[in-house]
Amino acid sequence: MSKSAGEYLSSGPRFAEAEVIERIESFRKRRPRLLDDHITLAHGAGGKASAALVDAVFLEAFRNPSLESLGDGAVLSLPGGERIAVSTDSFVVQPRRFPGGSIGELALNGTCNDVAMTGAVPSWVSAAFVIEEGFRIGELKDIVADMAAAATKADVQIVTGDTKVVPKGAADGLFITTTGAGVIAAGRRISAESVRAGDKVLLSGSMGDHGMAVMLARGDLAIEADIHSDTASVSPLVELLLAAAPSTRWLRDATRGGVGTVCNELAQACGCGVVLEEERLPVRPMVNGACELLGIDPLYVANEGKFVAVVAPEEADAGLTAMRSHPLGADAAHIGEIFPEPADTVVLRTGFGGTRIVDMLVGDPLPRIC
Amino acid sequence: MSKSAGEYLSSGPRFAEAEVIERIESFRKRRPRLLDDHITLAHGAGGKASAALVDAVFLEAFRNPSLESLGDGAVLSLPGGERIAVSTDSFVVQPRRFPGGSIGELALNGTCNDVAMTGAVPSWVSAAFVIEEGFRIGELKDIVADMAAAATKADVQIVTGDTKVVPKGAADGLFITTTGAGVIAAGRRISAESVRAGDKVLLSGSMGDHGMAVMLARGDLAIEADIHSDTASVSPLVELLLAAAPSTRWLRDATRGGVGTVCNELAQACGCGVVLEEERLPVRPMVNGACELLGIDPLYVANEGKFVAVVAPEEADAGLTAMRSHPLGADAAHIGEIFPEPADTVVLRTGFGGTRIVDMLVGDPLPRIC
C-alpha cells in the first residue's frame, strides 16, 4: 500500500500537507493540453506548450512504441539483434555565432548528445541545410568547418546530407537539421521505467551557460558578461559515468527548457517525485547574475553540454567521481533524489528549508536558443 | 586497349567525330566549380550549381568514404555485420499542398525512396519540423496526417522527431526534414562501380509529373492541366526489380534535376557514357504539353516516385516485366544503355537519328519543388 503524499513527504521534503495535496492533484497525471489554434514561439521552447503540441499533433498521428517513450532518440532493434539509437534535431539559433560556438558546432554536438542519452555511442551524423538565397558562401564554409571540427572532436562521421535553397525572405539565413545514430552496447538499458525511489539525481555541470551566452550575444540586453556556450559532445562523459555506475537508470541532456523541464519529463515518465536541492545546483556566478538581471530562473535556461543522470544510490559516488575526472564534468554535482511522491512532480528544496514545485517551462523567455 | 571515342561511337550513337571529341573533352572528368560568393536558388536545384556547392563546401569539409560515394544515402556497416542505409532530406515545397499530395507525403516518401535506392528496405523515419510563428495548427495537423498515412502505406514507422518555432517572417510556413533508415539485405551491392558497358538503363515510369503538378499549383502560369504529383514510396517496386534482376547495378530516384541530371551523376560516377533514346522516354501528354508551353525539358523536371535503374543486359527484360506488374511501374521503360564512351557524359539519341549531349541541370527553372 502506498503512503499518502502527506505521510510520504513528512519523511521527505517538508510541505504544508494540505497545500501539497492540492498541488499534487493539480499536477498529477496531467500532460498539458493544446488549446491554441496557431503556432506560437512557446510551442518551440521545449516546455509545456511544446509538450502539448507534441501530444496533440505528432504523437496522436504517429503513435508507435518508439515515439511513446518520448526520449531524446529512438531505439531501433535490427533483425540481427543489434540496437541502434537515432535522434534528430533542427537548429535555428540566432545569432549563428556566439561566444563558445556557432550553429555548426551546436548542430553536431546537440544531436550527438541526444544519441548518447540513449546509452549509445554516437558514430554517424547526417546534415540537411535549408539556406536562404543570398547567404554568404564564406559564412557557410565557416559554419561547415565548425561542424567538421566538432565531428572530429566527437569522433563521428558526417555521412550524408542535403541542401535546399529558399528564396530571399523565406528563411532567416540558415537552418540545419542533423540526425545522429550510434550503436547501443548489449545489455545497456537506459529507461525511465527503471528509475526507483532512492535513486540519486546527478547533473554533469553548471546550468544555463549556453542560453545566457546566446541571449547576451544578441546584444539587445546591454549586458556584458564573459559567458560562453557549453556546446560539447558529452558522449565521453556518458561512457565514463556508465563504466563507473553501470546501473544508471536514465539520462537526458538539459537543452531547451533547461534542467527544470527535463526533470519534469523525468517525473512524468517514471511517475515519481524528483526532489532537487537548490543549494547543490551548480550555476556559474556570471550566469547567475545575468539570470537575476533578466528575471530568468537558471533552472529553465538551455544547456548544450550538460545532462541529468539518475543513478543507483550505491553507484552515485563512483559515478560522480568518474564524471569529475573529465574536464566536461568538472562541476558535476549530486543535485537531488527520486522519491515515490509527489508523483509526476518536481520539488525544489530551497536553501531556507522551504520547498516549491518546479513546473515545466511555460512560455519562451529565450526563443531560437538552439 | 580502349577504342578512341570516334571509333567507339561509330558502333554506338552516330556523331560527327570532330564535334564529339571536342564535346567529350570539354565534359570529361569535370565536376562544376563553385565560383559564387553567395547562395542562389540554383544551388538548391539539384543540378550543376548544387554539385559545385556540395563539392566545394560540404565534401571539402566532411570528406569521408560514405560521403564520397555521393549516393542518395549512406551505407553504415555495424559492428555486428549488418548494413543499414541512412538518408536525409529537407522539404521546402511551395505550395505545401498540390494535386496528388502535400509536403507531408513528400517528406515521407522522398526520404524512403532515397533509402530504397541503396538497396535497403526503408523501415524508420525521423521528422524535424521548423515552423513559422502563427502557422495554423489545423494545417499542421493535416500535413502530419498526410505523413502518417504515407508512413502506413510505405510500411515505415516515424520513430522520433523535433519541433522548432521561428518568429513570424523567419521562415515561410513550414520546413520538414526527414531522415530514413533501413536494413540492406546481405549480398546486395548497389553501386556505380559495378556498372559496365552493355548494361541497360530502365526508368520506372513517366517523367516530370511532380515538378509540373507543383509548378501549375502555384497558379501564376495560368495553365490548367490535370497533372498530379507522382509522390509515392517506390520501395515495393525496387524489391520487385531486385527479385527479378538480382544483378541490378545502380538505382537513383530522379527528383530535383530530373532524369537528365541523375543520368549525368551516373555517367560521372561510373566513368561511362549513358546513351538515352528520346523516343523511349515516357512522358505523359499533359506533362509534355505543359513543358512545351514553359520551354522546359521534361528530362530536367523533378519526379517524386520514379527511379532510374541500371541492370545487367540479360536481366533487363525480366526486370522491366517485374516493374510493369506493379501499378507504380506500369509505364516503366527501357530508356537507354551504358557505353564505355563518351566517358562521364550523357547523350540523347533523338527521334530523327541525331544526337545531343544532355548536361546536368543548369540554373533553377522550378525552385522549391520539393
UniProtKB/TrEMBL annotation, chains A, B:
Lineage of the species this protein comes from: Bacteria, Bacillati, Actinomycetota, Actinomycetes, Mycobacteriales
Underlying gene: hypE
GO BP: any one term: protein maturation
Protein name per UniProt: Hydrogenase expression/formation protein HypE
Ranges for domain PurM-like N-terminal: 72-184
Family in the record: Belongs to the HypE family.
Domain PurM-like C-terminal per the UniProt entry, residue ranges: 196-347
Membrane-spanning segments: none
SUPFAM superfamilies to which the protein is assigned, alphabetical: PurM C-terminal domain-like, PurM N-terminal domain-like
Signal peptide extent: none
